[in-house]
Amino acid sequence: MPSASGQTVDVEHASDAEFQAWIEASGLGDLVDDAGIAEWSFDDRCRVLNFALRKGYALKFVEGKNNSDNSPNNSDSELLKPPDAASEAM
After folding, report:
1. I need a surface site. Which of 2, 6, 40, 60 has the fewest CB within 10 A?
2. Between 84 and 23, whose confidence is greater?
3. What is the pLDDT of residues 51-62, one digit of tens each?
4. Cα dist. 81→9, 44, 54, 86, 90 in Å?
5. Exposed, middle or buried by CB within 10 Å (0-12, 13-18, 19+), for 22?
6. Is residue 22 a contact partner of residue 3, using CB atoms and an 8 Å limit?
7. What pTM does this model have?
8. Angle at 9 between CA 8 and CA 10, to 5 degrees
9. Minimum mean pLDDT among 2-11, 28-37, 43-52, 71-80: which range?
10. For residue 40, with 0-12 CB atoms within 10 Å meaning exposed, 13-18 middle and 19 or more buried, which class applies?
11. Which value, in Å, is the radius of gyration of the alpha carbons in the chain?
12. 72 or 56: which carries more pLDDT confidence?
């Protein structure tokens, strides 16, 4: 997610203040207490994001690659093949 400093930070590792600022900037302030939440757990962050998405909010995330597509070794044939003999010996 974009932060106020212009740096990109993921939802899990954003500070509580960064996440709260993103909540406000994204128009999600009505989904939390008026004063915000002082300590955002990862579960709380996921819950508010999922709730907002279910309610049809358009969330602003930084564009990036899907993690499942960024590995050159994620083809079905490679993922489903049996291990080679060297791997079995370990």
Report:
1. 6
2. 23
3. 999 999 888 776
4. 36, 38, 37, 14, 17
5. buried
6. yes
7. 0.60
8. 130
9. 71-80
10. buried
11. 19
12. 56
